[in-house]
Amino acid sequence: MTTSPGSNDPNGNQPNTNDPNTDDPNTDDPAPTAGTGPDAAATYEQARDELASVVARLETGGLSLDESLELWERGEHLAVVCTRFLDGARQRVEDALQRNAAENESSLRSGS
To answer: Which residues are CB-neighbours of 47 under 8 A, at least 6 positions away?
Structure first.
């Protein structure tokens, strides 16, 4: 967990600025938030695996209507979480490619 001195909240908790599940606008993390709350997945892999489990349970059947609807809603939420993680990763790759292109262009102009 990444913390900085003096960043404790009144409960003594320290924010994790590298956690994609935080909505702190002051973080340096360019990735969009992946979800919030106690049931938010901490990683893309966790969200993906839980989504696969939800789909398997729905496909198996034998659930009540309420259970099926609850699982469906959870699956929809997890799909959004996965999309946000993937969008963040895609943006990081695009940013890295742009930085690399700019560095190459700068090197060519300076003659190195």
So the answer is: 34, 35, 41, 78, 81, 82, 85
